[in-house]
Fold:
Amino acid sequence: MLPASEDPQTRTALAAHQAGALRWLGGGVIAMVLGVLLAVGAVAMAENSGRRVPGVGLVVLVLVFLGVAAIVAGIGALVRTVRWRRALATVTWRAGTLRTAGPAIIAFEPYDVLDDEPVHLRLLSTAIWRTRAVQGLDGALVMAAPVGGGHWVLTADGLGTIVGARSVRRRS
Structure:
């Protein structure tokens, strides 16, 4: 069997994930640059006219904090994409049924295991659109692959992306 990373849909999904990460990173950099430019402009205007511009300090702080948050999110997503790409080069997709038990709680029932025990997972994403997309797959055929450290990635036909999840232990 071919590794999961050789599947054209997997490559497309990983490229889309990476593009999203770069958008977050780029947006964060742009917000930081705008914050710095606004701060420099406000200081220059205050020096030349002697008047302070009301509210500029707050806008600068918001831009800088949002920029830092977006940069951190972008870097985290890029690291995750690289880790997933490496892991998917060594494993194959496993077909199974997805069961949802809540907004972020899912169970993957693989077809290739004789065991009756499904793999219980919690989604890593907090994006509402991604969570709803996974909830819409309840009872559907999905492809999943372990990517190490108790983490899994899932995809399905028509999903257009890969979704990360981590295994959770069932309470007795």
Remarks:
- The chain has a mean pLDDT of 90.
